[in-house]
Automatic annotation (TrEMBL):
Cofactor: FAD
RNA-binding recorded as keyword: no
EF-hand domain: residues covered: 312-347
Signal peptide: none
Descriptive protein name: EF-hand domain-containing protein
GO MF annotation: an example: calcium ion binding
Keyword terms: FAD, Flavoprotein, Oxidoreductase
Origin superkingdom: Eukaryota
Length: 401
């Protein structure tokens, strides 16, 4: 059985939608699907040399964008600056020994039984791992004599942390430990009933709410405690393990990953006993990883170089907020926003439940927005974040008479 290495690239966009272009200009399939509040778009498929650090090229990114844009009207064209991260990988496509033409590559997996009795599984992908396991074990049973044989049990086996997990566990966790619901939901979805082990590593915030749990980045629910847990329990040893393989932050937003890299290195240094020289080496390796493997070419301003609101922008935000918060409560809700948009004649087709979703998404599960929070949302968007962008869009980029 032989295999050929193929390189494939996928890009990530800051919204959620799914499409499929069954035939691109060169006959490939281009697809997009929502994942973790972003959209994955891909993919290229070219022969490549094996590499531990596959490089994302601008050529691949522009190819995907051009093919996607062929299906969209001019006003909906996806721009290069919309790409929040990109990822390239090497996939081994096997030659199926059962096919007469050995040049035919299998994009699924192949289970081969050698006359000697050796059973080999090759190819495949993570999303079909249970099916691959079941088919392999069935071949083992078929080609060996066992006194007692039971059906393959992979379909009924739960992941670690799944034994006592329930879909509503996050609410119990949020209420009991004083966690934001969005953070609690993320932790429970990620760790299942192992969430309590992560919570033991959380430190007090010194606030009434949230009571525990320091975020790595304000736009994402990942906690500093998860870095410690990944080092202690999940064999994380370098920053890329945290940014790409445990939290997936570098996939969701490579720029945000760059911003939290110093803090990740600092926490890992505490856990692993790195000296200053080791910290510097791991920080530089993390930067190189983001640049080469995550498609980070032009990140704009980094941490410490964030743009601030101008006095004109602060005045605009204050004016907008006062118009929405007519009763002077200090916050506005989806109902207040609906009324304001109606007055501005901008929301004939915007339903209230959509506005509830818009506000909840922008404010980490809280259905009320304060003036300070509105300023923070606008500032984060100005610095390249996408969280809260729908709210700002509804407010007409905060420009009113």
């Amino acid at each position: 059985m032989f295999w050929n290495p193929f390189n494939y690239c996928q890009i990530f966009l800051p919204w959620k939608y799914g499409t499929c272009e069954p035939k691109s200009s060169d006959g490939r399939v281009i697809f997009s699907f929502p994942w973790e509040n972003v959209t994955i778009v891909g993919t290229t498929d070219d022969e490549a040399e094996p590499s531990h650090s596959p490089n994302v090229s601008e050529k691949e990114i522009h190819y995907i964008l051009e093919e996607m844009n062929r299906s969209y009207a001019k006003e909906y064209q996806i721009k290069r600056e919309d790409v929040i991260s990109a990822w390239s990988g090497i996939r081994g496509l096997v030659w199926d020994p059962r096919k007469k033409n050995h040049r035919t590559l299998a994009r699924g997996h192949v289970v081969d039984v050698d006359p000697s009795g050796l059973i080999t599984i090759a190819g495949g992908k993570l999303t079909t791992f249970r099916h691959m396991a079941e088919e392999t074990m069935n071949k083992v049973v078929e080609n060996n004599r066992f006194d007692e044989v039971k059906p393959c049990a992979t379909r009924g086996m739960k992941f670690e942390g799944g034994l006592n997990y329930t879909p509503m566990l996050y609410r119990e966790i949020s209420r009991k430990y004083g966690l934001e619901e969005k953070v609690a939901s993320h932790l429970c979805h990620t760790y299942g009933d192992k969430v309590y082990e992560v919570l033991k590593l959380c430190k007090s915030t010194g606030k009434q709410f949230p009571a525990i749990g320091h975020r790595l980045h304000p736009d994402f629910p990942f906690l500093e405690a998860e870095v410690r847990y990944a080092v202690k329990e999940e064999y994380a040893r370098i920053p890329a393990d945290i940014l790409a393989r445990r939290t997936r932050l570098s996939l969701l937003d490579a720029r945000a990953a760059k911003q939290v890299l110093p803090r990740v290195v600092s926490i890992m240094a505490e856990e692993l006993g790195w000296n200053p020289c080791q910290q510097k080496k791991n920080y530089e390796a993390g930067l190189e990883f983001l640049k080469v493997e995550m498609g980070v070419f032009n990140l704009g301003k980094g941490k410490g170089e964030r743009m601030e609101l101008t006095s004109s922008e602060e005045s605009q935000i204050s004016s907008i907020f006062k118009k929405i918060d007519k009763e002077g409560r200090g916050t506005f809700s989806s109902s207040d926003l609906k009324e304001f948009l109606n007055e501005q004649k901008k929301s004939q087709n915007v339903q209230k439940d959509i506005l509830v979703d818009v506000i909840t998404e922008a404010n980490d599960g809280n259905r009320f927005i304060s003036q300070e929070e509105l300023q923070k949302i606008y500032l984060n968007i100005k610095n390249g974040s996408y969280k809260g962008r729908r709210l700002i869009d509804h407010l007409g980029e905060l420009k009113t008479e």
